[in-house]
Amino acid sequence: MAGSGSGQLAYIGSFTSEGGAGLTVASVDPADGALTVLSRTADVADPSFLALAPGSGTLYTVQETPDGAVAAFSLRDADHPALLADPVPVGGDAPTHLTVAAGYVFTANYGSGSVSALPLGANGVPQGELRSVRQHRGGGPDADRQAGPHAHCVVADAGWNWLLAVDLGTDSVWVSRLDHSGAAPQREVPMPSGTGPRHLTFHPCGTWVYVINELQSTVTVCRWDGDTGDLEPLHQVGVRPPGAGGANAPSALVVSEDGRYAWVANRGDDSITVLALGEDGREPRFVTTVPCGGHWPRDLAADPTGRRLYAANERSGDVSWFDVDPATGVPAYGGALPVTAASCVVFD
After folding, report:
1. Model-level pTM?
2. Rounded Cα distance, 249 and 244, in Å
3. Using one digit for the tens of pLDDT, what is the confidence trace for 293-320?
4. CA trace torsion 145, 194, 192, 238 (10° rounding)
5. Which of 17, 143, 185, 309 has the CB geometry, 3.0–4.6 Å to 322, for a possible disulfide?
6. What are 210-234's pLDDT values in tens digits?
7. pLDDT exceeds 50 at position 339
């Protein structure tokens, strides 16, 4: 939903606990992708991840705090989002991700290792009573990062039949069938041990799922069956150049609309990895990396045209943009907008 006279809009989340403004709205210049701030609001603490409900005119944010919550903003005046109601508790600690599907908003609660389902009212506002909280169990071999479950991402499939929750702590993806109670328990799908899965993205063909691994700088390629909800890990591909040293923690993965390329944001290397996905998406191949334009890219997003990428660089406090070469998939730096403690970018 474009704002009055402003064309394309970007919504940027940031950590208020780190000095960020909360929710920033920026216009997008169609000629070069440059961002210009239109408004800011700190109505929600630490809105580190955002999601738009298609066609609803509503923007949802997490409140990534120990008493985690979800908030809904009206985009009737898209340049100046208006908080629709007080944030609603999710019954979990530090929600890092959310998705809207089948009349619910689902959150992945990193601190408590759980997934929450909140029904949405007719006005798009999460209802005050939780429908369910699904607690993950288990851990992994990394004693510092995997002593217990840490749900980090929750995504619905294209048909809104299944919910996939990625858990960094348990080295697994938890698959549930979507139903009128929120998310029915289904099964845990183990990922390679010690990889620390963080996020997942579907290939446009619907057959392949890419799981980005924070602890080992890899992507696990999985086969997906949307009829049965079966997720089968097949193989992995690295996201760093040969011989790369030092600590690195991939944060986000974006797949191009035509399914030819994927891009991965790397915290530590402060880079964006380019992967060529091959003819059908089954065999990603490392191509190159380019600097992310800042420090500690927590999120990576493609604009609706698919011609540009935007990196939310948390520690340098900016959002950088890149023009993507359609022949090679390689991004070229275009510029940056200062946004303190930037954590997420979504487009209307």
Report:
1. 0.96
2. 13
3. 999 999 999 999 999 999 999 999 999 9
4. 100
5. 309
6. 999 999 999 999 999 999 999 999 9
7. yes
